[in-house]
Amino acid sequence: MLFEVWAPYARERVELELEGARHPLERDPLREGWWTTTVGGDNGVPDGARYGFALDGGPVLPDPRSRRQPDGPDGLSAVVDHAAHVWRHRPPRRGLREAVLYELHVGTYTPEGTLDAAAGRLGHLVELGVTHVELMPLCPFPGRHGWGYEGVSLWAVHEPYGGPEALRRFVDTAHGLGLGVVLDVVHNHLGPSGNYLPAFGPYFTDTHHTPWGAAVNLDAPGSDEVRAFLLGSALAWLRDYRIDGLRLDAVHALADNRALTFLEELSAAVDELSAEQDRGHFLIAESDLCDPRTTTPREAGGLGLHAQWNDDFHHALHTALTGESQGYYADFAREPLAALARTLQQVFFHSGTYSTFRGRTHGRPVDLDTTPAHRFLGYAQTHDQIGNRAQGDRLAASLSPGLLACAATLVLTGPSTPMLFMGEEWGAGTPWQFFTDHTDAELAEAVRRGRRREFAAHGWAEEDVPDPQDPATRDRSCLDWSEPGREPHARLLAWYRRLIALRAGQPDLTDPDLAAIRVAYDEEARWIAYRRGDVRVAVNLADRPVRVPLGRDHLRVLAAWEPVAVPEDGGELVVPAESCVVLADQ
């Protein structure tokens, strides 16, 4: 078996330690900085064999390209034989135009917090009608429980979740049920604990700085190999685990001044793999730049990613529902219904407009005539927007079931590709809080103090901010699976199912034509209505009934949160308080 490692910082020698035995590596004459050796002969090396690399007589370190870390980020790596797995199901071909995504955190989706336990609950998602499960990051991180955004082995699966085999079982089960699987990957930083990459080579650079310290090296000397490292990791998820798509965390934090950017390189490589495998692989970016070039095709001068999260829609919807106006909500809260209408029609609220939060103009307009609507994801809640609140409170903690139904309607009948956050479909009463399990005592205390200091600046008392290191913080964040079977959760869950079925059955609701949507609203009366082809949607966020002009006769009700009577002769539709209705032409 071939063992190789890119270790340009090794001065004299690199040794492989495999199952307790040492084997010297030789410099690769054709690849600068690479060291290689072959061990095992015809019999190969058994699956699960432990190994690591020692540089210049130093400690044995895990493989930067480790496929498995059985003992966590600080332990030895283990051999993984991907070819030995027998797949039972073919991946479904499901594109973003018809997609409804469901963001899921493995560690809190079930009390067990494992991939196998999560797979056992996939039937719920089939009944709900979603098309893709979006898993939050799975790379190994310190301890057992955490959000996953401090992973360090970008090719491996967190062992407490079940490791590589459990991920393959999960994906195979999902595919057998007709569900696609999307994986959240983090390329903009790596966790500080258990991160041994700086010992091997210039994986990071001081040329740029990020909120997490030195930037991942995408454009300084040595960056060719770092980019290849990240590309290889991304393609490995798609190839070895049959993942259908990747969500790329905070791409705006990827400092990259090269003419051919890493994101372009990644999108080209994914498109090539997709063509090679006859699959529909896609990339979804998280970006706060409000820049349509993120998803503009490469041949048209864009980065070529296939979709991106749209936080502007979330912020407009959130302020309209809650009235909150702090921080980045301020611009949206001045006229929240107007902001919501703008994001429904033009995607971005900030499209070259002034942002008071940033103190400058921000964003660029989307070309509505050439850009399909499904390139943007719309959502009322995400792990970020819930978990980064001081107490991790969901919308259900402060809104009525009617307003939650209104939020669902705006997401699931709007022009963007809808995404839900686990548990929102029944108005989960459990919070989703920020939790960690750092094994480094100093780092744990720094995170605890930093969290409290951050929210103290916004008026929160220290004792009201949950301790991320307290196991109870994670436990509180686990879904309560008894809730969907009782009221008021059951009614809301039925509403989500109805809306998702409507989206699947009404072609107008997946029409990619952004220029075709028509929106009306009344800021003072707190209603908003829009038309998508023959489908009309009316949403009343007020605590009293409102009259909404339909401008159309002979309509039929497809779905209504509260009973409504459709007027004749083009009259006004009376929408009950905190309610919503979806209609269509006769």
Automatic annotation (TrEMBL):
<dbReference type="InterPro" id="IPR044901">
    <property type="entry name" value="Trehalose_TreZ_E-set_sf"/>
</dbReference>
<dbReference type="InterPro" id="IPR012768">
    <property type="entry name" value="Trehalose_TreZ"/>
</dbReference>
<dbReference type="InterPro" id="IPR022567">
    <property type="entry name" value="DUF3459"/>
</dbReference>
<comment type="similarity">
    <text>Belongs to the glycosyl hydrolase 13 family.</text>
</comment>
<keyword id="KW-0119">Carbohydrate metabolism</keyword>
<dbReference type="Pfam" id="PF11941">
    <property type="entry name" value="DUF3459"/>
</dbReference>
<feature type="domain" description="Glycosyl hydrolase family 13 catalytic">
    <location>
        <begin position="99"/>
        <end position="453"/>
    </location>
</feature>
<dbReference type="InterPro" id="IPR017853">
    <property type="entry name" value="GH"/>
</dbReference>
<dbReference type="GO" id="GO:0033942">
    <property type="term" value="F:4-alpha-D-(1-&gt;4)-alpha-D-glucanotrehalose trehalohydrolase activity"/>
</dbReference>
<dbReference type="InterPro" id="IPR014756">
    <property type="entry name" value="Ig_E-set"/>
</dbReference>
<keyword id="KW-0326">Glycosidase</keyword>
<dbReference type="InterPro" id="IPR006047">
    <property type="entry name" value="GH13_cat_dom"/>
</dbReference>
<keyword id="KW-0378">Hydrolase</keyword>
<comment type="pathway">
    <text>Glycan biosynthesis; trehalose biosynthesis.</text>
</comment>
<protein>
    <recommendedName>
        <fullName>Malto-oligosyltrehalose trehalohydrolase</fullName>
        <ecNumber>3.2.1.141</ecNumber>
    </recommendedName>
</protein>
<dbReference type="Pfam" id="PF00128">
    <property type="entry name" value="Alpha-amylase"/>
</dbReference>
<keyword id="KW-0963">Cytoplasm</keyword>
<dbReference type="InterPro" id="IPR013783">
    <property type="entry name" value="Ig-like_fold"/>
</dbReference>
